[in-house]
Amino acid sequence: MSAQPSKNLPVLVFLVLGAIVSLFATLLGSSSKTVSPPQIVTPSLTPTVTSGQTAPLTAKPKLSPTPGARVPYKRPTTADNGSPFPATSGYIKGYPQEFTDGYSSLTIDNSKSDADAFIKLRSKDTQNSKVVSVFLVKAKESFTVEQIRAGSYDILYRDLDTGRLSRSESFNLQENSTAEGVQFSRMTLTLYKVSNGNMQMYPVSEEEFQ
Predict the structure, then answer these.
(1) Which residues contact 125 (CB under 8 A, 6 or more apart)?
(2) Residue 132 gets which letter from DSSP?
(3) CATH class for domain 90-209?
């Protein structure tokens, strides 16, 4: 009597094939490359401005004054030596009054001006033109320097409203002895802001005024 094929043979074959397929799948999986996790890229903080966008506000750099640029004038409250200007026309404290051993006089008439005048009387007979008297003449007032030594002089003055600096042309104060006494000069210098002043004025630099 011949043996018959077992009924369980197809099931066995199926299980063997399944094991082979599973083995190949395992081998393939173990040989594949490991996938790295995605990298996180931090965006740049520098803004990029394109058309239609507004650039972020930044602090403006502090600008330094341009060398040689003119500084806006501000009326001073003191003279060059730091002394305050007097409340009325008169000499300014701290300045020596020199060449006061003569007979002549000089009157500065500022009655036609609306601005106070800071004035320096300067001798032209000395080397480097020495300042011998310093005083203030208020607007609408006059002031007289007395007992000035004979010689050649000019004045420097600052208009305290505008800061404008000027000097006069040179003038002479004279003394002459006579049988009756001494003849001497009594000069008046009128400060006009118009062309009919009695003496020509010229602009000067801050360095010359000092």
Answers:
(1) 151, 152
(2) E
(3) mainly beta
For tokens 């199926």, what's the residue? 14
C-alpha dihedral sign at 125, 126, 129, 134: negative
Chain centroid to CA 201: 30
For the stretch 4-32, pLDDT in tens is: 555 555 556 556 666 665 665 555 555 44
What is the pTM (predicted TM-score) of this model?
A: 0.65
- Dist CA 4 CA 183 (whole Å): 172
CA separation for the pair 135, 137 (Å, rounded): 7
Give the Cα separation of 112 and 169 in Å (integer).
20
CA–CA dist 86, 109 (Å, integer): 17
First to last CA, the chain: 148
CA atoms within 13 A on the CB side of 75: 11
